[in-house]
Recover the amino acids of this structure.
């Protein structure tokens, strides 16, 4: 079988595509995988490390700010479709699967024209415009959250699958992860991150939390700043004369996310669909802070918070004082954090990859 996976821009689109690719290779090592991305996304850095071959095609977000910008978007998408058409003729895929990001648009269109079976995975509880538009070009739409179904037009295409998480997230435990990372077994570990690129507001309050945790006995913090904010965070610490102790680790990007999630007692993050899925699979208590734009992430966070697995704090309500209070409460009451972790695990998409694989095989 020949399979194209596509998704780009951020890790939230890229890693689900890689998880699906890995599932196909696991089930049939003879499967040929091609990843199609866009040069403006981080996929050009992430995908080559996996060993999968990759092609890049042009694509652009929908910019409605002016007629000129709309024309510019249309021109680049058209160019991307032509480039994707060439990829299809060369690779001859049986299946094309998109997991989000504007690169999916030209690739799915070209895949449909070529005659491949085409599929989408919508990770969020509130789907974006691109995936809603692409519905008519695909055989099935896999849903990360069942609530997303009402935003699509054809119920017969909807398949509730959950969000695909890479196999490595299912096999780690806290003891092994801490040993691998060199973290003490008895510390209460807080892991804060705002996604692959970072989140300014989360970084602001996490910086204040870091000062509280710095040097705190039996406590440790991993601060994932994102690539856009790492330098400014380091500079800010230097300007304030903060001497970081050994229990603080600041990283711009986390390659082995599964180890850091498994090693932690508490996660502080955005409520992107992938972050929520990976955190719940690892069974960790979490403080979820949805972004403001479109408020799509609010529904992702609410799905876990309503079952007791997360504390939901909207960004407009986020303060360093409030966050520090929640963190220290859980640190001083570990049984509550453990109970939240079990509730989070109950929300995890344990069978997502099996459902996606089986549905695609059935379509073929």
């Amino acid at each position: 079988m020949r399979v194209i996976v596509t998704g780009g821009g951020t890790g939230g689109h890229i890693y689900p595509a890689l998880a699906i690719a890995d599932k196909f290779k696991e089930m049939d090592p003879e499967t040929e995988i091609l990843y199609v991305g866009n040069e403006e996304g981080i996929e050009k850095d992430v995908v080559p490390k996996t060993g999968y071959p990759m092609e890049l095609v042009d694509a652009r977000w929908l910019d409605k700010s002016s007629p000129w910008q709309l024309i510019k978007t249309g021109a680049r998408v058209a160019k991307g479709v032509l480039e994707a058409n060439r990829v299809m003729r060369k690779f001859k895929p049986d299946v094309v699967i998109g997991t989000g990001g504007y690169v999916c648009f030209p690739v799915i269109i070209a895949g449909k024209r070529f005659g491949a079976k085409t599929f989408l995975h919508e990770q969020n509880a509130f789907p974006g415009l691109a995936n809603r538009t692409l519905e008519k070009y695909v055989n099935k739409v896999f849903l990360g959250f069942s609530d997303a179904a009402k935003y699509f037009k054809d119920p017969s295409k909807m398949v509730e699958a959950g969000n695909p998480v890479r196999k490595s997230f299912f096999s780690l435990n806290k003891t092994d992860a801490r040993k691998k990372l060199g973290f003490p077994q008895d510390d209460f570990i807080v892991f804060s991150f705002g996604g692959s690129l970072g989140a300014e507001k989360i970084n602001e309050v996490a910086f204040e939390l870091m000062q509280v945790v710095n040097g705190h006995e039996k406590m440790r913090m991993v601060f994932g700043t994102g690539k856009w904010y790492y330098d400014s965070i380091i500079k800010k610490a230097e300007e304030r004369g903060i001497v970081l102790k050994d229990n603080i680790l600041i990283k711009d990007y986390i390659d082995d996310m599964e180890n850091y999630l498994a090693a932690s007692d508490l996660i502080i993050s955005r409520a992107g669909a992938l972050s929520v899925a990976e955190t719940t699979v690892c069974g960790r208590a979490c403080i979820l802070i949805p972004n403001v734009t479109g408020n799509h992430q609010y529904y992702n966070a609410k799905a876990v918070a309503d079952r007791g697995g997360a504390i939901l704090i909207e960004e407009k309500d986020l303060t360093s004082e409030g966050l520090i209070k929640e963190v220290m409460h859980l640190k001083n009451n570990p049984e509550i954090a453990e109970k939240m972790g079990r509730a989070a695990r109950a929300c995890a998409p344990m069978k997502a990859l099996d459902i996606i694989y089986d549905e695609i095989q059935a379509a073929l």
